[in-house]
Fold this protein.
Amino acid sequence: MLYTYSDTEYAPEKCFLCKGAGHAEGKTCEACGGSGNVLVAQPPRICPLCNGSGHTEIGICRACGGSGWALL
Ligand SMILES: [Zn+2]
Ligand SMILES: [Zn+2]
């Protein structure tokens, strides 16, 4: 299913922080809020800062909020 806001299409993509599970380490996933998916502008682009892992050396990737996708 696609969503369109301001002439940009968004579609749910798998959250990389929790690998689509919706939870990580016993907590609700911060990146997707527990849904396992995040809305990403189409065509989707992998976050360049964490290369899609959702993590950096200092923790959750701030550029993508941990989702692994470039959100802008
Ligand atoms: Zn998640
Ligand atoms: Zn990232």
User: Anything to note?
Assistant: The first strand starts at residue 3 and ends at 5.
